[in-house]
Q: What sequence folds into this?
């Protein structure tokens, strides 16, 4: 029965894989699926993460934990393992996971098991690392383009992957958030809504940004999965817009930062302003 | 498509749950059975095209070849460019309206074993942020500006660059 279910699951996944690659020439192995995309653990518990090869060829994936710090611009900056601080080193030491390297044929899922072993006397706080899933590049095959007799040929291979935050919460943690300084910007061809998101407290704040016009039910902009992490007190949230959204946003708006809908949609911060 | 993904995932997770149940139930048995399926929202990243500068014949002076994020080529003065060019393309699929940050290195170095070249990379997500659309899809393109030295040695130059899609 398990066999049958496995087959059913992989048939569905195979169909998905085909759908994704339709229309364009496929560049190479290493396509991947990762679920879930965020893990929060309260105390010594574990979690499982699914990694699936959705490419058309067998690929080897490496799973690693990295320290990333949020910049004031809201980017996640990778920190060299030699430059991590004591709390970050402790985070890496308390997170156990396996396997760390796995070779998967197409449409073969693999579960990565993660467990937390907080050391005795761990100070209250939020400890975070980012789990990175990335294909190991294959060595060039013999069918790769041969050296041209004259001229310069270029082959650039992308090594691509996904990282998800692994958050461990220890003890009583609290935080509040606030929104300020909302503005529309149009650098080059980009259209952006930007605002400052600040937090007070000792844990991250995570949620969904909903921009509405007073009296209109349908949101003008909705963006899920926005966080501000403990290492910074203020960040810029940048939301790319379509030209239509950019045009529609001029005027009075309410920007709300709410808890993820899966947690209960409580409002974390709110601001009413007029965008120009 | 998302629905299919979740269905497939639910299938695979259900199996995982079923397998672990075997060990968990080695404990004294109570007269109840639990069936559970967890639906997790996944992300997929698919590479749909490589960054390809085509073939370049170097000239008497240094020049550049640019491939825009749309894949269009601008061939520098004195260079001869042939072949088709493409920007690297990635398809990202996940939950609707999800915001992800993408990191693409500023430059990449290429080598044919003895000689090297440098390309500056440009990303279609100039702000470093992508919002998945209402269907949970987004695309990311990476173009580049390749510096070709005067009399750049012929050869097949290769290099790798890392692209990462980061969830917050």
A:
């Amino acid at each position: 029965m398990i066999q049958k279910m496995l087959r059913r699951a992989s048939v569905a996944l195979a169909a998905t894989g085909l759908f994704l690659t339709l229309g364009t020439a496929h560049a190479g192995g290493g396509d991947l699926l990762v679920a879930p995309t965020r893990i929060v653990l309260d105390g010594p518990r574990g979690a499982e993460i699914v990694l699936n090869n959705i490419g058309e060829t067998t690929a080897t994936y490496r799973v690693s934990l990295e320290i990333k710090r949020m910049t004031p611009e809201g980017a996640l900056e990778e920190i060299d393992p030699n430059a991590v601080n004591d709390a970050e080193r402790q985070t890496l030491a308390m997170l156990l996971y396996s396997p760390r390297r796995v070779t998967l044929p197409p449409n073969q899922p693999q579960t990565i098991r993660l467990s937390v072993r907080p050391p005795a006397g761990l100070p209250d706080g939020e400890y975070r690392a980012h789990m990175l899933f990335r294909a190991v590049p294959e060595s060039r095959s013999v069918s790769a383009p041969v050296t041209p007799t004259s001229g310069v040929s270029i082959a650039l291979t992308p090594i691509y992957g996904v990282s998800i935050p692994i958050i461990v919460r220890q003890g009583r943690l609290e935080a509040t958030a606030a929104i300020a300084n909302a503005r529309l910007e149009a650098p080059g061809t980009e259209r952006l809504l930007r605002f400052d998101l600040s937090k007070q407290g000792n844990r991250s704040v995570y949620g969904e940004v909903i921009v509405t016009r007073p009296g209109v039910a349908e949101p003008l902009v909705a963006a899920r999965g926005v966080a501000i992490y403990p290492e910074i007190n203020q960040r810029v949230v940048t939301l790319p817009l379509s030209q239509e959204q950019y045009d529609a946003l001029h005027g009075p708006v309410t920007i709300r930062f709410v808890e993820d809908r899966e947690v209960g949609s409580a409002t974390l911060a709110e601001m009413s302003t007029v965008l120009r | 498509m998302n629905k299919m993904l979740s269905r497939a995932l639910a299938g695979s997770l259900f199996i995982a749950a079923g397998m672990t149940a075997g060990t968990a139930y080695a404990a004294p048995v109570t007269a109840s059975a639990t069936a559970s399926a967890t639906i997790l929202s996944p992300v997929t990243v698919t590479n749909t095209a490589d960054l390809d500068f085509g073939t370049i014949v170097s000239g008497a002076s240094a020049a550049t070849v640019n491939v825009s994020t749309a894949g269009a080529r601008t061939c520098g003065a004195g260079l001869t460019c042939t072949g088709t060019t493409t920007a690297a393309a990635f398809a990202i699929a996940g939950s609707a309206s999800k915001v992800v940050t993408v990191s693409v290195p500023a430059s990449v170095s290429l080598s044919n074993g003895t000689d090297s070249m440098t390309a500056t990379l440009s990303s279609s997500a100039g702000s470093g942020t992508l919002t998945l659309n209402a269907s949970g899809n987004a695309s990311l393109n990476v173009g580049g500006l390749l510096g070709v030295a005067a009399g750049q040695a012929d050869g097949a130059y290769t290099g790798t660059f890392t692209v990462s899609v980061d969830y917050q």
